[in-house]
Amino acid sequence: MNTVIVLGADGYLGWPTSLHLAEHGYNVVAVDNLVRRRWDRECGTDSLVPIRSMSDRVRAWEHSGGGSITWRRLDVCDAEALSLLIAETKPSAVVHFAEQRSAPFSMIDLAHAAMTQTNNVIGTLNLLYALHEHAPDCHLVKLGTMGEYGTPNIDIEEGFITIEHNGRQDTLPFPKVPGSFYHLSKVHDSHNMHFACRIWGLRATDLNQGVVYGSETDETARATGLATRFDYDTIWGTVLNRFCVQAALDQPLTVYGSGGQTRGFLDIRDTVACIRLSIANPAAVGEYRVFNQFTEQFSVLELAELVRDARAAHGLATEISHLPNPRVEKEEHYYHAKHQHLLDLGLEPHALRGTLLESIISTVHQHRSRVNTGVLGMPNVDWQMGGTVNWTQRQQRGSRDLSGRRASNRRAETRAGN
Amino acid sequence: MNTVIVLGADGYLGWPTSLHLAEHGYNVVAVDNLVRRRWDRECGTDSLVPIRSMSDRVRAWEHSGGGSITWRRLDVCDAEALSLLIAETKPSAVVHFAEQRSAPFSMIDLAHAAMTQTNNVIGTLNLLYALHEHAPDCHLVKLGTMGEYGTPNIDIEEGFITIEHNGRQDTLPFPKVPGSFYHLSKVHDSHNMHFACRIWGLRATDLNQGVVYGSETDETARATGLATRFDYDTIWGTVLNRFCVQAALDQPLTVYGSGGQTRGFLDIRDTVACIRLSIANPAAVGEYRVFNQFTEQFSVLELAELVRDARAAHGLATEISHLPNPRVEKEEHYYHAKHQHLLDLGLEPHALRGTLLESIISTVHQHRSRVNTGVLGMPNVDWQMGGTVNWTQRQQRGSRDLSGRRASNRRAETRAGN
Q1: DSSP class of residue A379?
Q2: Predicted confidence (pLDDT) per residue in B18-36, tens digit
Q3: B393 has a pLDDT exceeding 60
Q4: Separation of alpha carbons B206 and A104, rounded Å
Q5: Are the Cβ atoms of A406 and B117 closer than 8 angstroms?
Q6: B231 to chain A, closest Cα gap in Å
Q7: Residue B416 has pLDDT above 90, yes or no
Q8: In whole angstroms, how far apart are CA B69 and each of B22, B63, B75, B228?
Q9: Contact B151, B219 (CB under 8 A)
Q10: What distances in angstroms separate CA A412 from CA A330, A416, B361, one per listed residue?
Q11: Of B170, B406, B417, which has the smallest distance from its Cβ to A172's Cβ?
Q12: Residue A14 and residue A32 in contact, taking contact as beta carbons nearer than 8 Å
């Protein structure tokens, strides 16, 4: 039986990926430690679309006639448990989503930065050792991020770049200038994985994913109980989702700074297709390969304008307002990233323009009574000053008071690197 | 008062650095958690040159008329304690040696790999936050390693490289292909530090150091009680030190593989000078700069031949034998690394040829009755199979049995990256 483990199966993308792979004949073992739901309670955030418990979801999937999914609660930071899981199931592929994936969450304070890097880097290290020991031919499909690259003034290649220098040449890892402690954790993972492939002959695909939008895949749409989460707050929400929620409440779309920040984007249906295609076309023994997983580039302002235009077609007015940028990033910059490898494997991208945008707006409209306007208007985590979300619970647990500890607000340009 | 904190002050280089800075008028706070001595007990290893306790050493330094050194026992992984130390002392510079620094130790098993990466990366992250909060103008002088770069087929620049690509140009971090989980931890540190300088305006110098040789500096030679450690085993010993001990026992010098592995080397007296020069010429606000800290390049075989030739001048014969290489690394490769920045600051390098080599051989000869031949002949940690040192203590503490868990011995070439 062709077993695939999905680590982080309770997440926004982990759940639809589990369904999609089960639908395509894989015997899916869906693994999660459910920490994402705990972080929601910590932050006072919640999915706009109601989601069921993992056991309820898996049951709903079985009722819908879907393929095999086995649910296992497990933390990848528990090295022994993870090692046993790999030894028992001998998967042909492992899809690894099981990381803390919010840049603002990682920037709240030292505790969140250290937790993010420990959780992500050591979790992946545990997995690399478990594969080395118990499933050396297993194909690791790991979620990275386009944010690993930053915004260099040259074209971004897929993971490696051929450099000519002083009359010599080598193909080396593409230099990384990531923009948060979360993005840094993915850079660390990439280096560790590359090494494990070199020394142990593991096979791995690192999917440097862009910003995902959308709420449904063919599989999640099959029954209400199969819905995946939809985040719109300033901690967990991606930018397009947030714009759609703001629009549904007739609030201005809030753009950080000028909005010239350009990134790669993709439809959630393309995410699950990319992972299926990666598994179906595995990396070779000893190969560490990188795919840039996105389909279109937009600036943040362009996204806001797309939402405004989609609403204008229905006679609705939409305001766009610019807020001070809490992140330290360039607001106007060159951006051109390659994304050919997945197209070569057969990806047929969904474009954002057209019906997709209307379907997101419609999903949001359907659930707009659930919008927590407090969360939507929550102060942003500041890249220099740290976090300002609801830390009542943390402080009650005796954590140190965060207010007033950060006096430094210098905004300095680095001389090196740019 | 010009206070400099030396983190990792009990180590091979941390101790001589503390003395050297005190000698040059700095008010030194010497910090360590003494874990290096615990690791010696774990591995059954020991310094060839006897070393005193930290309090005895500091007392001996005072007796010798040396400048101010305050000894503080503290673990950089204790974020609160480190933060308090920075807040109390408001240092003008922090020299950060406080990391697990053995590549073989990091490759023993998952526990050692994870400990190395957690200890090094989170310790440095704690320090970055403490500086950001309490001493934002402090100059961080951090020890990296030349091993971060690996052995690319192009010239190695100092931290950053200007890349021309598809008609555009940018100066970006030099791509890293490190060769152990230890070396990877330093790569992770470098990325985190670069980011902290960009977003918080910290100032940092990352010293990518080569392999250090030698046993004495001007300051440690002042009294017996001021000696620093001298490691010769396969876990902690650097290659030239090991050769000198093997030669002193009339044993063959053991070269891994062909011995064509070329690296940068420097004299311990140059290490302390480089750190003093870096402090005296600090990085600018927001600047993250990288100096390649070595003075000469040698292949491992060339080093063995230098030891043989030095002994031949005294009529002593020396055999060189080649062992199977336990590491996964290229044994014949291009290697040309820049190391101009520290020369520009005034470094006057000591060359290995000449009296230096004889002085190391003489130090070793003086202490040769202390050589633990069991440790010298200890099986090496294998990069693919894991560790084989004395784990009796660990196993008694209930750690999992390491023997027989690693069946995989495939030696695969990676397609990507080279």
Answers
A1: P
A2: 999 999 999 999 999 999 9
A3: no
A4: 27
A5: no
A6: 27
A7: no
A8: 7, 12, 18, 16
A9: no
A10: 13, 12, 50
A11: B417
A12: yes
CB contact under 8 A, B201 and A411: yes
CA atoms within 13 A on the CB side of B371: 25
Catalytic residues of B, which ones? 145, 182, 186
The contacts of residue B397 (CB under 8 Å, 6+ apart) are none
Half-sphere exposure of A229 (CA within 13 A, CB side): 23
* C-alpha neighbours within 13 Å on the C-beta side of residue A6: 28
Closest alpha carbon to A204 in B170, B192, B213, B417:
B417
Percentage of residues of chain B with pLDDT beyond 90 = 79
Nearest Cβ partner of A161 from B153, B165, B407? B165
Please give the sequence-ordered ranges of beta strands (E in DSSP) within A174-281, or none if there are none: 203-209, 211-213, 253-256, 262-267
Measured distance CA(A79)–CA(A118) in Å, rounded: 13
- Chain A positions touching B334 (Cβ under 8 A) are 168
- Whether B78 has its CB under 8 Å from any CB of chain A: the answer is no
In this complex, do A161 and B159 lie within 8 Å of one another by their Cβ atoms?
A: no
Those residues whose C-beta lies under 8 Å from the C-beta of residue A92, and which sit 6 or more positions away, are A2, A3, A4, A137, A138, A139, A279
Residues 6+ apart with CB under 8 A from B161: A163, A165, A175, B171, B172, B173, B174, B175
Q: Establish if A334 touches chain B: CB-CB under 8 angstroms.
A: yes
Q: Would the ipTM clear 0.90, i.e. be above it?
A: yes
Nearest 5°: the CA angle A131, B398, B392 is: 95
Task: Give dist(CA A90, CA A3) in Å, integer.
Answer: 7
Q: What is the C-alpha separation between B39 and A153, in angstroms, rounded?
A: 45
How many residues does the structure list for chain B?
A: 418
> Across the interface, do A136 and B410 touch by the CB < 8 Å criterion?
yes
Taking only the tens place, the pLDDT of each residue in B166-175 is 999 999 999 9
DSSP one-letter string for A271-302: HHHHHHHHHHSPPPTT-EEEEEE-SEEEEHHH
- Whether the CB-CB separation of A9 and A54 falls below 8 Å is answered with yes
Rounded to the nearest angstrom, the minimum Cα separation between B8 and chain A is 21
Q: How many CA atoms lie within 13 A of B71 on its CB side?
A: 17
CB A230 within 8 A of CB A241: yes
Cα separation, B168 vs B176, in Å, equals 22
Give how far B326 is from chain A: nearest CA, Å. 11
pLDDT lower than 70: segments of chain A: 1, 354-356, 377, 379, 388-418
Question: Of chain B residues 10-69, which have a CB less than 8 A from chain A?
Answer: none
Residues A231 and A47 sit within 8 Å (Cβ to Cβ)? yes
Question: CA A242, CA A83: separation in Å to the nearest integer?
Answer: 38
User: Which residues of chain A neighbour B416 with C-beta distances below 8 Å?
Assistant: 159-160, 171, 194, 197, 287-290
List the one residue out of A186, A110, A198, A175 whose CA is nearest residue A147.
A186
pLDDT tens sequence across A355-392: 667 788 889 989 999 999 888 767 688 988 887 544 43
DSSP reduced 3-state for A214: coil
Residue A345: CB atoms within 10 A of its CB come to 15
Distance CA A321, CA A307 (A): 13
CA nearest neighbour of A232 among A387, A351, A374, A388? A374
> Is the Cβ of A325 closer than 8 Å to some Cβ of chain B?
no
List the single best residue of B117, B195, B403 to mutate versus A (max A Cβ within 10 A).
B195
- pLDDT (tens digit, 9 = 90+) per residue, B340-378? 999 999 999 999 986 667 788 889 989 999 999 888 767
User: What are phi and psi for residue B358, nearest 5 degrees?
Assistant: -65, -35
